[in-house]
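Quick one:
INPUT:
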């Protein structure tokens, strides 16, 4: 708003001549143009001046800085295309006061002039800004603290959103002698830039310049997103897991925390935290389940965590064999170690949410599990480790063997789903099904039994197939008969409940058979007709009797004529 207004004023300025200056006869003084011209003495005693870029100016604009020394007629001028300039020590009179202002040169010799400032270089050092500034953001507030200055000084503060360059600065006054301030009603998901400066007072003998920009990042609100995972076996019983992730607003992030936790974890307090700058991590783990929590952090704290469960390993290349002998609700687990580690870690349970663990230090590998639930599939893993404190397992254990067992096998509590009959012929039909869900098997599924009944209700067993089969062709069926198929799964404990198919009927003719039959009939008929016609013409030719009187023309039919005469009357 303000900028475009100024631009409009600049354009108008072309026409009106307010001839203030001989060098720039068309330069228009714009007292409203707050270009924030600031000049201060560097440590090198050069004088640096900065100002705001001219609003709505073309990409390249020439600024002229004017310096009018006290008691010197001639103006000192310097041109620049950037909104700052440094005047060397040799061009300065340190003890003399000067008026300084900026002019902007536009095309057609038009020009605008900003307000002027006056200073004496020797007294134009930069005032000290608050030291030890500590700024952070809590939800929608900025909380800023600083040290009490040695000389009581009054400050002001300004802030703007960090990412959007165009946002205007907001000025916040600070009470004198305050050492902290809270700015409220901000956007909790935006980062801010803050600057300080003192408020000039007589006798201060220094210049109040905006301090360096202080970035106050917002609290990280979104969790990293896993974008890549890869697992490779690196040695028997060990695997490496590579994870990569992506984040939003990575410019606010200082690094990442990676927490690795073994499941089950029998030492709750130990935290295996890795701190990284990169967005990927390579973890070397055993085949046990692991939970990896990843979060980003910055000065404001930690983002929410992403949880990655290192999945069940399907590794087959494990060094050891585990034998389980179920005994009701107990089971005795034995294994033969290839060497004698300090200890074994035994993990068992029905899934990653329900795993238990035990450290076994007896050299002969054997272990009794108790309180097992019948009809549930258990997974048991045995790991060998030479360091036997729980916080060291992640690094030192090697998986020795994995096996699955049911403490007591049951029969499937449901049959396969989605039994459909396809490709029905005269004597056969194809049955397809979807395998029984693992949780319905209640035992190791050995296979499926397929049987069928005809309309009389008599039942025949067609076949038993193994558990990886999901279709079977029934053959030897009777034609044009209604059948119904039953499929059940079986385990070592017996056969489970069957699923019944929709009834279906075998065909009367096979595909092709009926067509052949029809073609036969067609040709016979053609033959009969042609033959009859020939005989007929030969026998009756002389009698001049037509075997097939000519077909009457419907146009001559009285029925049509009657209809035609009735239509107009309707
Ligand atoms: C700025 O000054 C340079 C050299 O002094 C000149 O070449 C250029 O055309 C000027 N640009 C404008 C916009 O006046
Ligand atoms: C500065 O720029 C103005 C306007 O473009 C020009 O008239 C003047 O000669 C330039 N002065 C120097 C020292 O380049
Ligand atoms: C600058 O401003 C002072 C007063 O603030 C005035 O006396 C002086 O004439 C001005 N100089 C020029 C060159 O405009
Ligand atoms: C802020 O400063 C006031 C004194 O001006 C002090 O009482 C208060 O404890 C300070 N608050 C914080 C958070 O430092
Ligand atoms: C808050 O800041 C974020 C990030 O800069 C922005 O996407 C969002 O629109 C802002 N919300 C409001 C209400 O300004
Ligand atoms: C690992 O990545 C694959 C794709 O590469 C994805 O299908 C799978 O779900 C990922 N695994 C996990 C546990 O996120
Ligand atoms: C990982 O995150 C889950 C859920 O927030 C938490 O229960 C668990 O303690 C975390 N693990 C670590 C090692 O921080
Ligand atoms: C993981 O193992 C691989 C191969 O043995 C090795 O190169 C890598 O440095 C290991 N990484 C860590 C984090 O231990
Ligand atoms: C288990 O090991 C102990 C010795 O540690 C042995 O006495 C016992 O017979 C073993 N049990 C089985 C079932 O192997
Ligand atoms: C075991 O873990 C603890 C705690 O993390 C660690 O201090 C120690 O060095 C580890 N020992 C070995 C042998 O890795
Ligand atoms: C059922 O079987 C049909 C044919 O094999 C298949 O197209 C469909 O996807 C299956 N539906 C389910 C739920 O498995
Ligand atoms: C249907 O059954 C016939 C006879 O067994 C067989 O030749 C044909 O390939 C089957 N078609 C399909 C789609 O299974």
């Amino acid at each position: 708003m303000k900028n475009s207004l100024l631009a409009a004023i600049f354009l108008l300025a072309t026409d009106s001549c307010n001839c203030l200056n001989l060098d720039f006869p068309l330069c228009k003084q714009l007292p409203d143009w707050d270009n924030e011209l600031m000049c201060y003495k560097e440590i090198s005693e050069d004088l640096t001046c900065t100002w705001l870029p001219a609003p709505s100016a073309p990409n390249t604009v020439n600024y002229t800085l004017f310096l009018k020394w006290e008691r010197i007629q001639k103006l000192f001028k310097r041109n620049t295309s950037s909104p700052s300039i440094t005047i060397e020590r040799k061009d300065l009179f340190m003890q003399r006061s000067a008026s300084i202002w900026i002019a902007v040169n536009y095309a057609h010799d038009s020009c605008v002039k900003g307000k002027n400032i006056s200073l004496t270089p020797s007294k134009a050092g930069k005032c000290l800004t608050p030291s030890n500034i500590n700024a952070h953001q809590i939800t929608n507030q900025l909380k800023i603290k600083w040290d009490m200055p040695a000389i009581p000084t009054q400050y002001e503060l300004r802030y703007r959103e960090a990412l959007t360059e165009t946002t205007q600065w907001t000025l916040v006054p600070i009470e004198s002698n305050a050492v902290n301030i809270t700015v409220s009603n901000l956007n909790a998901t935006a980062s801010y830039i803050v600057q300080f400066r003192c408020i000039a007072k007589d006798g201060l003998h220094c210049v109040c310049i905006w301090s360096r920009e202080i970035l106050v990042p917002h609290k990280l609100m979104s969790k990293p997103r896993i974008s890549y995972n890869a697992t490779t076996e690196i040695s028997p019983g060990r695997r490496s897991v590579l994870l990569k992730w992506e984040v939003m607003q990575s410019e606010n992030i200082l690094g990442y925390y990676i927490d690795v936790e073994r499941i089950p974890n029998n030492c709750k307090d130990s935290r295996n935290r890795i701190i990284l700058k990169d967005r990927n991590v390579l973890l070397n783990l055993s085949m046990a389940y692991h939970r990896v929590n990843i979060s980003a952090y910055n000065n404001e704290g930690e983002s929410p965590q992403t949880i990655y469960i290192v999945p069940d390993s399907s590794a087959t290349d494990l060094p050891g064999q585990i034998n389980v002998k179920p005994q009701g609700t107990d089971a005795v687990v034995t294994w033969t170690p290839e060497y004698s580690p300090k200890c074994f870690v035994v993990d068992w349970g029905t899934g990653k949410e329900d795993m238990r663990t035990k450290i076994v230090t007896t050299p002969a590998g054997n272990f009794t599990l108790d309180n097992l639930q019948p009809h549930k599939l258990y997974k048991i893993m045995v790991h060998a480790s030479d360091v036997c404190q729980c916080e060291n397992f992640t690094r030192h254990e090697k998986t020795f063997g994995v096996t699955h067992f049911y403490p007591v096998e049951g029969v499937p509590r449901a049959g396969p789903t989605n039994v459909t009959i396809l490709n029905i012929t005269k004597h056969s039909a194809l049955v397809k099904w979807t395998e029984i869900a693992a949780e319905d098997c209640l035992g190791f599924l050995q296979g499926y039994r397929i049987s069928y009944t005809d309309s009389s209700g008599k039942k025949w067993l067609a076949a038993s197939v193994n558990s990886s089969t999901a279709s079977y062709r029934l053959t030897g069926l009777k034609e044009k008969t209604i059948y119904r198929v039953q499929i059940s799964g079986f385990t070592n404990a017996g056969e489970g409940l069957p699923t019944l198919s929709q009834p279906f009927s075998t065909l009367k003719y096979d595909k092709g058979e009926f067509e052949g039959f029809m073609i036969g009939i067609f040709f016979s008929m053609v033959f009969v007709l042609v033959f009859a016609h020939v005989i007929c013409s030969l026998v009756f030719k002389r009698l001049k009797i037509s075997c097939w009187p000519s077909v009457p023309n419907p146009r001559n039919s009285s029925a049509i004529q009657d209809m035609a005469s009735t239509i107009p009357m309707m």
